[in-house]
Specification:
Blueprint: E1 5-8, H1 22-33, E2 40-43, H2 57-68, E3 75-79, H3 85-91, E4 96-101, H4 114-123, E5 126-129, H5 132-138, E6 150-152, H6 184-197
Parallel strand pairs: 1-2, 1-3, 3-4, 4-5, 5-6
Length: 203
């Protein structure tokens, strides 16, 4: 079946369960619920047999553009890589583009400066943020921010019905990648201090 929607994961993201990151897990789960799932093609570096030939973001996105430039794609969805935008627009001038931010835009190449962010607004058909804070960061320094082509879609999970709280355990969980950018080192330090004062709790 002809694919109308192409979702482009960051170069380092993988759909392999052993190596999957937050973005690829989000895309995989949300796509499975989409009524358009049969028309969606997810692009990741997993698609390439010789991944070492790509070795960086620029080669990865150019490879995609050249491979699919003759396809009539209706929508291209870019996740967390605003630097891909210029290549996508060049090769697919008539395709609708959505850009989804999962992290602070001011830390991502292609959206750090206000000029880069203005270009994103003028180039994208829709800009999606996973939190209010990320949207606020994107529009920081704007004097008159136009939010009309942006929206917030927060991450969520399917609610488990009939949860019993009678046997609730005293466990505190850290959920996320174990690196300093996610603040796990702060969590560990705090959890150890908390344990000294409340020994019946575990982290």
């Amino acid at each position: 079946m002809k694919k109308d929607i192409y979702i482009i994961l960051p170069y380092k993201e993988s759909l392999n369960p052993s190596f999957a990151g937050a973005v690829s897990l989000y895309v995989k789960d949300t796509t499975s619920y989409s009524k358009y799932k049969k028309k969606i093609q997810i692009i990741s570096s997993d698609n390439y047999q010789n991944k070492s030939e790509l070795f960086r973001n620029r080669n990865y996105i150019i490879n995609f553009c050249k491979k699919y430039e003759n396809h009539k794609i209706k929508i291209i969805e870019i996740h967390n890589r605003p630097e891909y935008l210029a290549y996508i627009r060049k090769y697919f001038p008539d395709t609708k583009i959505k850009l989804i931010f999962h992290n602070d835009p001011l830390s991502l190449r292609g959206s750090i400066t206000i000029n880069e962010r203005e270009n994103i607004i003028n180039t994208c058909d829709k800009i999606i943020f996973i939190s209010n804070w990320i949207q606020q960061r994107f529009f920081s320094s704007f004097k008159n921010a136009d939010l009309s082509n942006s929206t917030i879609i927060q991450h969520s999970i399917k609610k488990i019905k009939n949860i019993s709280l009678k046997n609730k355990k005293k466990n505190i969980l850290f959920v996320g990648k174990l690196n300093q950018a996610k603040g796990y080192h702060i969590f560990v330090d705090t959890a150890l201090k908390f344990k000294k004062n409340n020994s019946d709790w575990n982290s």
